[in-house]
Amino acid sequence: MANSASGDSMVHRLVRIIAAFDEEHPTLSPAELARRTGLPSSTAYRIVDELLAESLLDRDGQRLRLGTRLWELVSRGSKVLGLREAALPFMEDVQAVVGHHTTLGVIDQQDVLYIERLGSDTSTVNITRVAGRLPIHATSTGLVLTAFGSAEAQETFLRRRLPKLTDTTVTDPEELRRMLADIRHSGFCVMPGTIVPESTGVAVPVFSADGTAIAGLSVVIPREGGPVQASITALQTAARGISRALGWDGTLRDAIRRSL
Amino acid sequence: MANSASGDSMVHRLVRIIAAFDEEHPTLSPAELARRTGLPSSTAYRIVDELLAESLLDRDGQRLRLGTRLWELVSRGSKVLGLREAALPFMEDVQAVVGHHTTLGVIDQQDVLYIERLGSDTSTVNITRVAGRLPIHATSTGLVLTAFGSAEAQETFLRRRLPKLTDTTVTDPEELRRMLADIRHSGFCVMPGTIVPESTGVAVPVFSADGTAIAGLSVVIPREGGPVQASITALQTAARGISRALGWDGTLRDAIRRSL
């Protein structure tokens, strides 16, 4: 496949074009798109024409937006969709019982990526959003997935330099190592105020049929007076339901036993 | 951008690779992928390497799957995500009150594309699925969106040759034209048995803040004894809530007035 003079692959140029659209920029004019991608206008316009021909971009008056066809193509084959479809009814149960924001997240590269979120207007501050990312060390979902992940991923995580987001964000590797051991022992993670001071995250792991921790199920509750114990109980109950919906046969595998 | 000897654009070859993955084929070996796309192996493998480098494909052992990063890139900038996030709480309300499958669909190209679905295990047969398509003329969502769409789109639709899916699927243009007029008058569409004989679809339009019918909100109920009137009432109530969540200020614009 032809690479540009700068050595960029065609796929990389396409990624730059798709990534230029986001929640703050759902539509772009062709000139804005060229500017945001840093591609030469002629290159950007040529790729845009090909993307329009395949309905991967749609016209919105004089502006461009990601095509619904692109969402469809990606959603059909994506493991994200199967996971969130399995989880959604159980997330509704948690939200109904606990009454606060409920999220489902996975680890992707070096972040937590939230793939579903049920909000509550009357609850506390929650900055997660669907397809949004947060740092692993500052979120209950990130720590619970790391604690039940591979030893190798844990060591890689503990070697990284981690930013402090609030007064209570833990960044010391030895303290994090102790926290991970506690989470493996208890089966849940409670993180008060590590992203925003007024909220506490509570998370448990969700296991696939083969016992791999594939997602973190979490609620975000008020730090003062939030229902921590009820949240843990509701999350653990729902997480077993999601595993069963994913094909788990109900027998306790090692990883699941450790988390209960 | 370099085109292949066959004249295929690079973007078209990428689409063939992404489209090769679907619900039945969530993972493919490189050889299977080359076979399903019909691309020469050397071409397919070269594109796969570039997609792996950008995390648009992930390795799953010896097999390949669509990358979570691809879902993330597309979801962030997609109008589908904003629409389904606004609609989801109201869809839960409909499901709780009516007790049957609830779906949200849009028209894309010449089909209804379902972007969300809340299922019910105890209800009737419903073949919709998220990111799945059904024909416009056989679905309540398709007809309701056509009825409240542009006159031009209606004429294009009525000129198409339409397949008969069941005994009750209407394909005659003049009968369809009368049905569209009825839907504009009543504000809803009830379709008994046009996709599967034992189920009835009921749909209402969802309007954006500027009064455009952007989605159809629908329930699928049993054809015998299903709660048609309660479904219409619940759907109309929820559709107003979704419009408000999308920024509608509550004043009745023409299109919305016609639908109430």
TrEMBL record, chains A, B:
InterPro entries in UniProt: GAF-like_dom_sf (IPR029016), HTH_MetabolicPath_Reg (IPR050707), Tscrpt_reg_IclR_C (IPR014757), Tscrpt_reg_IclR_N (IPR005471), WH-like_DNA-bd_sf (IPR036388), WH_DNA-bd_sf (IPR036390)
User: Which Gene Ontology molecular-function terms are recorded?
Assistant: DNA binding; DNA-binding transcription factor activity
Keywords from UniProt, A to Z, are: DNA-binding, Transcription, Transcription regulation
Q: Which residues cross the membrane?
A: none
Q: What is the lineage of its organism?
A: Bacteria, Bacillati, Actinomycetota, Actinomycetes, Micrococcales
Source organism per UniProt: Sinomonas atrocyanea
| Pfam families xref list | HTH_IclR (PF09339), IclR_C (PF01614)
What is the official name of this protein in its record? IclR family transcriptional regulator
Record-linked SUPFAM superfamilies? GAF domain-like, Winged helix' DNA-binding domain
User: Where in the numbering of this chain does the IclR-ED domain appear?
Assistant: 69-248
One of the GO BP terms on file? negative regulation of DNA-templated transcription
Where does the record place the HTH iclR-type domain? 8-68
